[in-house]
Amino acid sequence: MHKSKQWLTVIFRWFVAIGLLIFILNKTDSDLLWQTLRGFNPVFGLLLVVCHIAVLMLMAYRWRLIAQQLNVEATYADYLKAIWIGALSGQIGPPLIFSEVARFKVLQDYGDTQSLIGSQVLDRLSGLVALVFILLLTLPINWPVFAEIISAAALLQGLAIVTIAGAVLFRTVLSTKIRAAMARNNISDVMSLGQSHYELSSLIQLLLMLGFLLAAYGLGDPKLPFTLFTLLPLIFAGLTLLPISISDWGTREMFSVYVLSFAGLPAEESAAISIIFGFTYLLTTLLGLLFLLKK
After folding, report:
1. Where are the transmembrane segments (predicted)?
2. Tally of CB atoms within 10 A around 258
3. Strand, helix or coil at 139?
4. 274 Cβ contact partners less than 8 Å away, ≥ 6 residues apart
């Protein structure tokens, strides 16, 4: 029954992804979109693949740093294999399920179940902390841009709601028992400020943003490249809060069209940037088949 529910979730998310892509296509000039895509410079596509490979390699190194502190001992090559196969698995199902299960199965013989799962959770949390940090740095930069569309009062209300909700969630999740368990398993030390994995997470986030920027330059010089770059954390934040499709297809395009409009990009160009980013990432994850075929 559990497997049937899991596959129902997969089917539902495929429908969501396809539905959102169809919605985006209906809201844009399809001919102009395909014309924009055809004008993409393949050299930037190659650079994008290199960027994605660098991200996966850094993700493997970050996970290893965290997992070693929880006594999960494996070589860097094993972590890279797990990360890459997990990324490939995330192309056919919900990444938070398929990717994490694949990662666990690859390394399940290198540590106890609790430590390995804990390392995966903390690995995700490290990336989330870096995203929030970069988002907080870039929001003030783009405040004048948002003020043209959204009133300051609405922005302050939104930030207040998010802050209160985050505080309540933090208080609820970190109950006394959970805090005691964290101390018992050395998790508090692993996630303390100053750990080098946060620097890696920030670098990974910047490389993901660079990937979007490369896609934009592959279509021609964007009007406001700095504004475009500093708006990108909002797209990744939206995808983190709304993981409802397969490998972010559809939702990524939806957020891109809305967010990049603040940088003066037309909907067709924004959608094209997102599609190119997603397609080159898909091509990169297919290299994970080499790990599956290798004995």
Report:
1. 7-25, 40-61, 125-143, 149-174, 200-218, 224-242, 271-293
2. 14
3. coil
4. 212, 215, 252, 253, 256, 257
Integer Cα distance of 239 and 102 in angstroms: 21
Residues 119-170: pLDDT tens digits?
A: 898 999 899 989 989 988 888 887 776 666 555 555 556 656 656 655 555 5
What is the structure's pLDDT at 177?
Answer: 46
Which two three-digit tokens encode residue 237?
């934040």
Q: Which pairs with CB-CB distance under 8 Å and at least 24 residues apart come from 135-140?
A: 135/233, 135/234, 135/237, 138/230, 138/231, 138/233
DSSP letter at 263 equals G
Cα–Cα separations (whole angstroms), residue 119 to 21, 64, 105, 131, 198: 34, 9, 14, 18, 14
Give the span between the Cα atoms of 193 and 126, in whole angstroms: 10
Cα distance between the two ends of the chain: 33
CB 280 within 8 A of CB 52: yes
Which residue from 57, 58, 52 is spatially nearest to 276, judged by alpha carbons?
52
Tell the burial category of 132 from Cβ atoms under 10 Å away from its Cβ (0-12, 13-18, 19+): middle
Q: Give the tens place of pLDDT for each residue, 27-47.
A: 888 889 999 999 999 999 999
Look at 113 and 180; give whichever has higher pLDDT: 113
CA atoms within a 13 Å half-sphere pointing along the CA-CB vector of 287: 15
pLDDT 10s digits, 65-119: 999 888 888 999 999 999 999 999 888 877 778 889 999 999 998 888 888 988 8
DSSP assignment of 228-244: HHHHHHHHHHHHHH---
Which pLDDT score is estimated for 184? 54
